[in-house]
Amino acid sequence: MTHHLHRLWIALGALAGLIAVGLSAWAAHGADPAQRPLLDSALTMQGWHALALLAVGLWAERRPGLLPHLAGAAFALGMLCFCAAVWSLALRGVSLGPLAPIGGTTLMLGWALLLVSALKR
């Protein structure tokens, strides 16, 4: 079942990167300067984790097992939660409660899963 899932992580990473570049351009030219620190935080996390998803996709293709795919799922979900919460606060002033820290924790879980996958024989 997971033998073609690596392509999903690559596709999600490419999509996240595409969106991050577009949003970065918008933020640089159209966003309220007072919101830039929040927007930059979301864009930084999205950019880094777009690359992480690409790496997971390549790793999962070469490494059998569930761990790389769990890492990919954690990166995708964590990035969505963290970035959505930060964007909501920056653009609408609406807090999504604990969604940002949940997303950040999920991103850290993704890195831990990737680490274990790399060290596992």
Give a quick set of tags describing it:
121 residues; mainly alpha; 4 helices
Low-confidence stretches: none
What is the rounded distance between the termini?
A: 21 Å
Tell me the number of strands.
0
Query: Which structural class do the helices and strands define?
Result: mainly alpha
Number of domains: 1
Radius of gyration: 15 Å
The proportion of residues forming helix, as a percent range, comes to over 70%
Proportion of β residues?
under 5%
Q: What characteristic shape results from the CA principal axes?
A: elongated
Q: How do the helices and strands follow one another from N- to C-terminus?
A: HHHH
Mean pLDDT: 94
Describe the sheet with the most strands: none
The total of helices stands at 4
Summary, kept brief:
The chain is mainly alpha-helical and 121 residues long.
SSE layout:
Elements: H1 6-30, H2 36-62, H3 67-92, H4 99-119
Helix pairs in contact: 1-2, 1-3, 2-3, 3-4
If you had to describe this structure to a student in words, what would you say it looks like?
- The protein is an all-alpha fold and 121 residues long.
- The chain has one domain.
- It has four helices and no strands.
- It has helices at 6-30, 36-62, 67-92, 99-119.
- It is elongated and about 50 Å long.
- The model has no long low-confidence stretch (mean pLDDT 94).
